């Protein structure tokens, strides 16, 4: 008798789970980079128009 070959396809539920997990990891990486940039240079996130308004008061 021949040895049966194991099926190598991924289950539909497992592929959806892996896709969602990879999307969440990608989103987490983007947020980490954005937060790191904000920590390094916090004043770049503030619009300069608010500085002019505060100086006029």
TrEMBL record:
It is found in: Membrane. The chain crosses the membrane at residues 12-33. Its main location: membrane. The keyword tRNA processing does not apply. It is a single-pass membrane protein. The keyword Magnesium does not apply. Pfam families: Cortexin. This is Cortexin domain containing 2.
